[in-house]
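**Fold tokens**
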Amino acid sequence: MPSLKTAAISAFKQFRDACRKEEGNLRCEVVQRLEQPNQFVTLQIWKDRKSFDAHAGNPAATALRDKLRPMLESPYDERVHLGLSVAPPQPTPSGRPTYVVTHVDVIPPRAGDAVALLGQIADASRKEAANSRFEVLQQTNPQQSFFDRGALAQPQGVRSTRRNAGRNSVP
């Protein structure tokens, strides 16, 4: 339903704009899945846990959940991550960059190996010309789940798969 999609985009834009003004927010972006345009992700970076906790009770956060509730096809899913290999904060790429998010699960005894390998991948990927950002995050629970995400300045070079789900930023 186009009207629901328009309403969702509007709600996310309002949230993003309010979030960016909050104390301790370093970045807030909203991205929309390419193959399933009814799926959205907010990517937020907070100065510290105290700022993030204050944000959780902020009227903008509760308003977003309230606006989305009648539109949801599945439960609201929030996953908190800690930066594992993150470059210094940079401005959001101009235009509508394509974000690639990859989820990696490893068996707990090999989590240390995964940390080292993902760090190497991040370092190498940051040197690629079309890659404007590359970050590796570790989910706080379970700790053997990792995400890498990159923002590509040249989206025509992206081929999305089920494991590498491409997303465009919401203008």
Notes: The chain is about 30% helix and 30% strand. The beta strands are 25-33, 40-46, 81-85, 98-105, 131-139, 145-152, 164-169.
